[in-house]
Amino acid sequence: METKIKILLTEDDENLGMLLREYLMAKGYNTDLLPDGEAGYQAFMANKYDLCILDVMMPKKDGFTMAREIRMVNSTIPIIFLTAKSLKEDILEGFKIGGDDYLTKPFSMEELLFRIEAILRRTTGAKVKDQQYYQLGRYTFDTQKQTLNDEEKSIKLTTKEAELLKLLCQHANDVLERNYALKKIWIDDNYFNARSMDVYITKLRKHLKDEPSVEIINIHGKGYKLIM
């Protein structure tokens, strides 16, 4: 991991803020902790950051307001919201403002790390990761035409199947974190969408069953991994 990655963390709960900062520093991320949205925004304007983690409910300036102000000066920096609320309206509001991800308290440190790594892979490796074709053993996956092709046949995938397979390919041989995939494709990680995603995973496995070198496995409590 490159130590030059710098994170702006705003969290008004002093204990949680210190814990998060220490954890992220231990993982090699240079992290500045600010106690409210106003101080956080001033720090953002004064320094160069690679990612922002914003608590939504903060004194002086809430996380959504701070994110809107950040977006006015920087449209691309990744933003993760932390909140005690899990209301769909709040989640949608966060994405509408331009948030990249959303974590509802209480959450595990490991889950936050997964989200950060996934976002940084996506943003820093975007040119490499965002490709039209992926080779899955004998199959060629065309992300634009949404097809799986081999010498004998062409399988037309549904939009959801293609989106899910593309995410798996982008994280090939790495964990595709379940909540990340749900929010990326379905916007909401509720129970019904989670069950729906399981169905699509089963469909993808059926499509790929004739290729023994490719396998989608469950990683208990985390998500899925495309082995190839």
Fold and architecture overview:
- With 228 residues, the chain is an alpha/beta fold.
- The protein has two domains: 6-126, Response regulator (Rossmann fold); 131-227, Arc Repressor Mutant, subunit A (Orthogonal Bundle).
- It contains nine helices and twelve strands.
- It has helices at residues 14-26, 37-46, 63-73, 88-97, 109-124, 126-129, 159-170, 178-185, 191-207, and strands spanning 6-10, 30-34, 51-55, 79-83, 101-104, 133-136, 139-142, 147-149, 154-156, 175-177, 215-219, 223-227.
- The strands form three sheets. A five-stranded parallel sheet has the order 2-1-3-4-5, with helices on both faces.
- Helix 7 crosses helix 9 (191-207).
- The longest helix has 17 residues, at 191-207.
- The protein starts with 5 loop residues before the first strand and ends with a strand.
Concise account of the structure shown:
The chain is α/β, with parallel strands linked by helices.
Query: What's the rounded overall pLDDT mean?
Result: 86
Query: What is the β-strand count?
Result: 12
Strand order of the largest sheet: 2-1-3-4-5
For the record, give the distance between the C-alpha atoms at the N and C termini, rounded to a whole number. 23 Å
Report the biggest beta sheet as strand number plus sense, adding barrel if it closes: 5 strands, parallel
Q: Could you name the CATH topology of the largest domain?
A: Rossmann fold
Q: Beta-strand level of the residues, as a percent range?
A: 15-25%
The radius of gyration over CA amounts to 19 Å
Q: Which architecture name of the largest domain does CATH use?
A: 3-Layer(aba) Sandwich
Described by the principal axes of the CA atoms, the overall outline is elongated
Total number of distinct structural domains: 2
Q: What is the CATH top level name of the largest domain?
A: Alpha Beta
Helix-residue proportion: 40-55%
- Please count the helical segments: 9
Q: Structural class, please?
A: alpha/beta
